[in-house]
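Before going further, it is useful to explain how the protein records used in this thesis are read. An example of such a record is reproduced below.

***
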Amino acid sequence: MLEKYMVTKQLIAKDLLSIKAVFLRPNEPFTWASGIKSPIYCDNRLTLSDVRVREDVENGLAEIIRREYPEAEVLMGTSTAGIAHAAITATILGLPMGYVRSGAKDHGRGNQIEGRLEKGQKVVVVEDLISTAGSCIEVAEVLREAGAEVLGVVSIFTYGMQKGVDRLAAAALKNVSLCDLDTLVDVAVEEQYIAPEDKARLLKFRANPSDEGWRN
C-alpha cells in the first residue's frame, strides 16, 4: 500500500506540473499577498478544468479517505476551493457533503455550515492546498463547535511548511495530502521543469519563506 501511495504522489506531481497548476519560477519569483517573494505558485482550481487530472485527484482523495479515515460519515469542503473537490469525492464514496463558510451569513438562517450535519457525526475536511494550515484549522474548529467529530483533513498539495505542521499538531488535526513539495521538486527535476540546482533553493524557501536567502 505504501508503494502505491508513493506512485500516486508522483502521478499527482506530474499532473499539477503538466497543467500548470503549479508554477516553479526560482529566478522570477511570485509575490504573495503578504509581500513574501515565492519561487512557487499553486492554483489547484485548474485541476477541475482538466478531465484526466480531475479524475486522478478525486480518486486519489477518495482512496486516502478509505485508507486513513474509514469511519468518515460526512465530507466538508473549505470555502471556496475545497467545495467542488468535497462534492466529487463524496459522490465517489457515496457520502453526504457540505461546506463551511469563512464566516456566518448575515441573512437568512445565518448559517456558517452549509449542508446537513448531525452532532457526533464523523467528518473529514477537504482542502485544496496546505501552507500555514489556517483555513482548514478554522473549518475544523467550526465543525467541532457544532458537535462534529473531526477525523482529519485531506488535501491535494502541501508545502510542508513548519508553521503549518506545528499549527496542525497544536490543533490535534491530522492532514494527509495527495502530493507534497519534496515529491514535486523531485519530479520537476526529472521532467526538466527546473534545473537540479534549483531543488535546494525551493526547499530552502519552504524552510523559512520570510528569509529571501534562497534567492542567492
